[in-house]
Each structure stands twice: as C-alpha cells, then as structure tokens.
Amino acid sequence: MHTAPLSRPAFVLRKTDRRRPILWTSVAAASLVAVSAAAWRGYDAYRQHALEAALLASPPAGVFSEARMEGLPALAQRYLRHAIAPGTPLAPATRLTMRGTMTPSPGAEAVAFTADEVLAPRRGFVWTAHARMQGLPVRVRDHYVDGDGGLRVAAFGIVPLPVGGDGPDVTRSARGRLVAEAVWCPTTLVHPSVQWEAVDVERVRYTLPVDGEAVTVTLRLSPDGAPREVTMQRWGDVDGLPWRALPYGFAVEAERTFAGVTVPTRLMGGWHYGTPQFDPATAATFVVEHATLDPAP
C-alpha cells in the first residue's frame, strides 16, 4: 500500500523564517543609531553656530588712531602701530582658518589637524578641529564662552572619547588660552580695560580682565614692534601633577596682514615653553591661513 508523505506542520518555522526577527531587529537598531547620530550632529552644529554667533554679536568700537594710544608705554604703542593700520575698525572678534600639529599627550605622536576658530578675546572662543587619531577621524571642540569652558573630542564626530572635559580648572585654563590668543585679534587690545606695562627694552605685558580674572600675557618685540614671543603662566595639569600655573608660550615665526591688521601666522611652542622641560620635537605648531576681522555672524 502506498502511503503519502506527511506534510510539514504549518507551525514549524523554516531557518530563514527564524532569522527574520533578528534581521529586522538589527535593521531597526542600525536605523535608530543612524537617526540618533544625525540628530546629534544637527544639535552639535546648532550649538556651535549659537556659540559663535554670541561671540560675533558686538559691533566695532570705533577705528584705530594715535589718540587711542595716549598714555600707553612706548613698547605698547610700538606693537599696536605695527599690528593695526590707522583707520582700521577696532573689531571685537575674528574668524580664523588654520592648520598645524600637536601632541595630544606626553609620549604620543604628533597629530596633524585643520581647524576653524571664532575668537573674541574679551568674551571667548570656539575652536573646532578635525584630525585623525589612531586611524580614526576625530573632531575636537575647545571653547570658552561667557565664563564656561570645555574640551570635547569625538570619533566620527559623534562618539565621545575620554579626553578633555570641563569644570572650574578646565575653564580657567581655557580663559588663559583666550587671552594669549588676543595677538590674533589685536584690535581688542585697544580698550580701556586692557592694562599695559613695560618689562624691559624689548618686552611688554598686557593684562586683560575676563569674567573676574585678570590674565597677563608678555610679548617680546622686535625693533619694529613685531611680536617674536608670546608667553604667560597658564593654568594646567599637563604633567600629571595637580592643577597650577605653568609656563606656556609660543615663538612667532611668520606674520601676515589681513585688512589692515597684522597677526602671527606661524607659531611654535606650547606648555613649558622657555624652560628646560620644553621639547621642540613635540611642540605644537599653528599656521593661520586666513583671518577675517569683524566677521558677520
């Protein structure tokens, strides 16, 4: 007698059927990650634009003239005459594009970067850089705006890395960076709040109060008033010891004039500059490719 084969019960799933829930779950998870990443990038771009717009909101405070330097030490006048052409608007901010190299930690290899920065020395800065670290594309965001500073590093622009941070010490360090970088926007140093003092025949220091802290920077000048060194005591913990004031500075190796304002365009230095602890082989370098004084928000 011929017996017909038994048919497979309807409730028995084939292997491909069993894999479908896993497949759809994976697709849904990947989609969620993609949407979240896009949302984060959108928020981050909005946050960056908002910070930059806040720094660019103030109009120029008149134009540069000899009368603006009345009562200043001779060295300060020499520097300002070199840096600012007569009649140039006293812009409170600048937008910079740059490239360079830096060593992210002691013993690490130097990393090349490109960056954009909005800098308003009496209020803050937003520095956004792109680089590759250990083969991964990373974005670095360093900022100080109206009393708040922080450093963020993210792989692919969205995955936070355990570098940088925030808090009172980071904010104080960022404030020091802000005032040192006023040489990229010297029009902000022509202001009643800035105090000038001659140190010797070639050095002059300026003190700029920012959010309740008076920060002092020393310039070593050439005979024509061009800055050759920018030095200060900056709050930091780069050697693994507790936070404290550390030597910090740069040698100015080149400069260029943008719309009546002459600024350093190649600098080399970093922490411990001017001391035996400074290693030129691991120094940071910054090459400014363009500066736009008083840029539109």
Protein model, in words:
- The N and C termini lie far apart (91 Å).
- With 297 residues, this protein is an alpha+beta fold.
- Helix content is 22%, strand content 41%.
- It has a 13-stranded antiparallel sheet with strand order 6-5-4-3-2-1-13-12-11-10-9-8-7.
Structural features:
297 residues; 3 helices; 22% helix; disordered N terminus
Low-confidence stretches: 1-11, 29-37
Which structural class do the helices and strands define?
A: alpha+beta
Kindly report how far apart the N and C termini lie: 91 Å
- N-to-C SSE series? HHEEEEEEHEEEEEEE
Largest sheet: 13 strands, antiparallel
Query: Into which percent range does the helicity of residues fall?
Result: 10-25%
Described by the principal axes of the CA atoms, the overall outline is: globular
Overall radius of gyration: 26 Å
Strand content: 35-45%
Q: What's the total number of strands?
A: 13
Helix count equals: 3
